[in-house]
Amino acid sequence: MTSRVVPDTNVLVSALLFEQGRLAWLRRSWQTAAITPVLAESSARELIRVLTYPKFRLERPDIDRLLEDVLPWCETHSGPIKACQLQVRDPKDQLFLDLALAAGVPVLISGDGDLLALKNELQPLLILTPAEFQIWLDTP
Question: Which terminus of the chain has a lower count of CB atoms within 10 Å, N or C?
């Protein structure tokens, strides 16, 4: 069964940009339908914004190719996204928590300390690092 997940932008960017990196397995996971990333318009816009950072030195065709490597495998949550009463320390990360709760996904994947600090606060939502998620995914 495919696991629906909300990956934060940094997780997606790492999986997309570093084909031989430590998160390359994540890209293969969505492209083989082992997982389904769930995005909303706001998280997709954030992904595009981050891919345009000068440090990545990506031209528009490069960004388009990266988006083609993830968007076809994503589920789009187009329903309402209410703000969670539990606030993330960094307001930029709030959208991932709110999306995960609104979409009813079991797992939010993040390496961000502000999201991971809420790890035990929102059962049954799991907030896992990519490494923890890989173990969770491989556990029968």
Answer: C
Whole-number pLDDT of residue 91: 81
pLDDT of residue 1: 60
Q: How many domains does the chain have?
A: 1
Q: Is residue 92 scored above 90 in pLDDT?
A: no
Residue 69's domain comprises 3-138
> Under a CB-based contact definition with an 8 Å cutoff, are residues 27 and 69 in contact?
yes
Question: What CATH number does residue 121 fall under?
Answer: 3.40.50.1010
Report residue 140's pLDDT band, with 50, 70 and 90 as the boundaries. Answer: confident
Nearest to 125 by CA among 107, 109, 138: 107
